[in-house]
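Field: sequence (string)
Field: structure_tokens (string)

Example rows 1 and 2, in order.
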Amino acid sequence: MSEPDTRSVLVYDGDCAICCEWIRLFERHDGGDIRYRPYQEAAPDYPEVDLDGFKAAIWLFEPDGRRSEGAEAAFRVFRDVRPWSVLALCHARVPGFAFLSSRFYRFFARHRGLLAGLTHWLWGKDFKPPPTRLTTWLFLRLIGLVYLAALASFAVQAKLLIGSHGLLPLSGWLAALRASFGDEAWYQVPMLFWLAHSDATIQWLPIVGCLLAVLVMIGIWTRGALIALFVIYLSLYNAGQSFMTFQWDLELLEAGFLAVLLTTGLRAPFLLGRWLVFRFMFMGGLVKILAGDESWRDLTALDYHFETQPLPSPLAWYAHHLPEGILMTGVAATLVVELLLPFLIFTSRNLRMFAGCVFVLFQASIMLTGNYNFFNILTIALCLLLFDDRALARLVPKRVAALAERRIVPTRSRVTRLGTWIVAAVLFVTSLELLWRMMPREEGDGFNYSWLARTVSVCQCVNNYGPFAVMTRQRYEIVIEGSNDGADWREYDFWYKPGSLSRRPGWIVPHQPRVDWQMWFAALGRAERNPWFTNLLVRILLGEPEVRSLFRTDPFPDDAPGYVRARFYLYEFTTPDERARTGNWWKRRLVGDYFPAIGLKKARTIDIGREGVGQ
């Protein structure tokens, strides 16, 4: 004899199509703890409720005799299905939420056609969560592409940046780390260069990374290659010192670690990826408000941005001269995109994908007006995780979708599944702590990172973001000059940063010329705070070939100059009239000296290796 069914029973209108759709959604998530019965069948078992009552609302009958209707019944079921959801918690604890939800329920119960239209507009006509195998497969291919771009860019600069004759020699950096951390140096600053740091190793490590990135792109040995790529890029990040302190390097490390987890095919890493998109976008807006820069509050930030950003594109000149109303609208749109739209990620499917489309267009607009290497491409790749296979299948050939279906298969290993969930949980908790760290607090209210956050931060798996918190109002450029006699000075023109007034800004995405970028930051401070810059001048005097490659034009092609100095200029975009008259994109005004003249004799007394132990 079978045991009696002691489950709760939810009674609904079986003739209501939209009601049946919501019931099917509950059935997929309740774990079988609730029975669902149309009132047309169940009404005789519950004579205490008349037919009009069943037609007007759903009813929940629980084993202990408790019964509830309408919104109360829906939320009691919802608490069983997802007890920690925001809606369930609000209904249980937020004053007035239950009353308002009851009113909304009654309204939509009387206007079920409107409810059906709204439901389909928000979620589509199928409540069943679409698979994400194709989305994951495409994301992994794009991560491989971004790794390839980042590592190839670093490879052509590696010896210049951290080689034995580079601007921040790695050997001096390793010695400084050993002096600071002793035997724990390898743990505090993990990198493969603790094993070997010759110039050959420095040159070949990013090249090996490029080969591994190609393997990821073509889908061979994906998980192993992604693990190796993460280790390689973390090594370059820790070895690069001042040249590897950019937010896109941190974003690539976090996204790269996420990619390793995504190869398991499990749901947790995918949700963690969406959480990363939220954090990245929301933090970008949050820092603009918290930094207190008036240009964001009075909507004038774009009056300066296009002209003062590190490496403008050709379109930046045109954007700078747009009407004031358009520029102010652009600032307001930026704040809406970064502060409000991220919350759509946690709502319905269609609203989440709408946010994803806006984020992609937002990143594309940034990429059109500025050279931010692989930064925007990486962020667009992450935004792909806001979509699903049902949406993306329309954009790719069927054979690609079929290939993704075969390649991305959820792991069956219990150990791997458990480990992935634990790691995802650790990363999520750590990210919450870092996000909380950004929130304003009273003066003197300190904040100490937990042991967990400090441990995770060693590998840069979770980071805080927030570009352009404070807008630079004026553009200063450092111009290096050389001379043989101390009287006739000739300028060195870099390949990418503004120099010659008539040279049009270029397109260099996804390459990042890291010295050109650092020259922009150096102009914001003093030369003493940038030891690599001193080394750059010394290397010019010594005629180092790696340094010569930095310049578009070398005014001393046959031999090194006898003296070098650096001058400080204020650069501005020309007006349309000035450009029509002169053909120049820039105009400039001398401000003063950035670094006094130095000769070869004095340069030989500078300890380059010690100066190179950077920031």
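Row 2 begins here:
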Amino acid sequence: MELFLLFQDFIWVKKEGVTDGKFGRGDLSVRTRRQSKKLRRRGGLKLTHAFSFPNPRLEKAYIALQAWKHAITDDPKNLTGDWCGPAVCNYTGVYCAPAPDDNRITTVAGVDLNHGEIAGAIPEDIGLLSDLSLLHLNSNRFAPTLPDSLSGLRRLFELDVSNNRFSGPFPGVVLRLPSLRFLDLRFNAFAGEVPAAVFNANLDALFINNNQFQFTFPANFGNSTASVIVLANNNIGGCLPASIGGLAKTLEQLVALNAGLKGCLPPEIGQLKKLTVFDVSFNDLVGPLPESMEEMKSLEQLDVAHNNLSGEIPAGICELPRLKNFTFSYNYFCGEPKICSAIRRRDDRRNCIPWRPEQRPAEECEAFLLRPKISCSDTGCSGSPPPPPPPPPPPAVYHK
């Protein structure tokens, strides 16, 4: 299911190198001087001291961008072909704006190399771009990890490194970015645990789908401030916790399809009155749909297909005023109120609803009904079938 997520990007004005005449090369920080020497020691860069810059921050940006260009191994669209000379605000994909703390000077505020198919690494020198607010690198071939120096980007608001070749554990450096609100790590090869601290971060959007993360929801999941959380195509392997109700004030979209979810949907999900998109398809959820979902008045798209859900569809769900797309195919529901037929797009195939077409064979539905009853606790985390009965005692041994 396609999601149309609207985010307002920052708009940066390209500047030609505005200067107030107060700064010169002699004002460079010690760190910048040391970085400059480090670059020269690498042998791949030769900084021309004849260059003059409007302010020290643009000179640091020049050093960082030259180091980055040197770390690129393939640039098929030649996006960085004009990354030379001191006019960094004229580089392709580089955007400048007045400094947040001094609007008299111009700084590099954004780098956008989306869809560049660029191969290479992100160098430690990126930490010199201390005024960066936006870093968009999706659909490239950057690898292998995000450098630790990224933590120096104290003003970074949006970080999008999706659809690259990053790997290794969750990049903890992103949790040390105090201004970060938009984090997109999807379509990489990150693996392992997702730190619980992610859900304490002051994020508005969290995309970690299509990686190799393996984790269960931490107790603080409900602390997240995000309006959009996309976890799909990982191995979460647990249940949605009751703490999900804590997301009621902010959460608008939750996508966790094919994420290894188990157990029952907790009744606290009904507290998510701002939620517009809820997709938990292709999991191993069991039990009925909670009647509390009738309170999700903002819901527009609901997808619970390809699970082991059962019982009757609550009529109140189909009466939700904004629901346009309701997919509950490939489950074991046995009843569907007629009011559901009013939903513009609904898919109820492969269930056990007697009067609807394209349902499961009767014998398959009967076999499902013979399974042990599912009991969902208030936490929603004990919706697994009860343990099998103990084995019969061994046959008695008779001694002659």
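free_text_note (row 2): The helical segments are 30-42, 56-70, 315-318, 362-369.
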